[in-house]
Amino acid sequence: MPAVRPLVWGETFDGDGSQTGWEADSGFGSWYGISLYFGGDSYGWQVQHNCEVIADRDDPDQAKADAQAHFEKAVLAALSDTCK
Fold this sequence. Notes:
- By secondary structure, the protein is α+β, with helices and mostly antiparallel strands.
- It is 23% helix and 38% strand.
- The chain has 1 helix and 5 strands, in the order βββββα.
């Protein structure tokens, strides 16, 4: 099975210069974003693909892993059976 390259994450910041998350370009005209939010009594990390929420995690590393898994699944699904 071919290997899928890892997403390359860049930090995102708010207007005050505080880090708010990360974003990565898929290289296929779409993007992934991980955003910090406060959900009632704790902080969380929301994972988005082109503005669609695909996961919600307590840990930013797990959020990045979810985005990578989503990306790999999409890439591998687009390959023909002869490429897999």
